[in-house]
Amino acid sequence: MMKIEHLGIAVKSLETSDGLFERLLGTQNYKKESVEREGVTTSFYQVGESKIELVEASNPESPIAKFLDKKGEGIHHIAFGVDNIFDEIERLKKEGFIFISEEPKDGADNKLVVFLHPKSTNGVLVELCQEKP
Ligand code: ZN
């Protein structure tokens, strides 16, 4: 694992939360992006070497909509940046961790991403991400 690449925060409304986080962080988002396949719209802020990713549901079936129903707004996932996502998946599988899907997918912000199941990581949704070549 290289570093904490970003923290994902589930929000009801990017329109409202972008204003809040702009004031909190003293900076504008550098990117807003929809990942339709995942049912999310994301907004990214650079904070030093790490980032904050605000995540809004783009449809009622979105996993984010379900998360908001169950838990409300708040920290949704922690994302670790890795050099080689395939090596890291192999390593963590050997260590007994369970993945939501073992196949990396295109995520927001030009990344390949994969998620570990929270039941194998103390209830924390963990994302691995690798910059796309
Ligand atoms: Zn993320």
Average pLDDT number: 95
- Which range does the strand content fall in? 35-45%
What is the number of beta strands? Answer: 8
Name the shape in a single word.
globular
* Largest sheet: spatial strand order: 2-3-4-1-5-8-7-6
Helix content: 10-25%
Major sheet summary line: 8 strands, mixed
Number of helices: 3
Q: Give me the secondary-structure category.
A: alpha+beta
- Determine the N-to-C terminus distance: 18 Å
Bound ligands: zinc ion
Order of helices and strands: EHEEEHEHEEE
Spans of at least 5 consecutive residues with low confidence: none
Cα-based radius of gyration, to the nearest Å: 14 Å
Structure overview:
It is a single chain. By secondary structure, the protein is of the alpha+beta class. 23% of the residues lie in helices and 39% in strands. The protein is built from 3 helices and 8 strands. The protein has helices at residues 14-25, 63-71, 85-94; strands at 3-10, 31-35, 40-47, 50-57, 74-81, 105-107, 111-116, 126-131. An 8-stranded mixed beta sheet has the order 2-3-4-1-5-8-7-6. Strand 2 (31-35) and strand 3 form a beta hairpin. The longest helix is centred in the first third of the chain and has 12 residues, at 14-25. The model has no long low-confidence stretch (mean pLDDT 95). The chain binds zinc ion. Zinc ion binds at residues 6, 8, 53, 77, 79, 127.
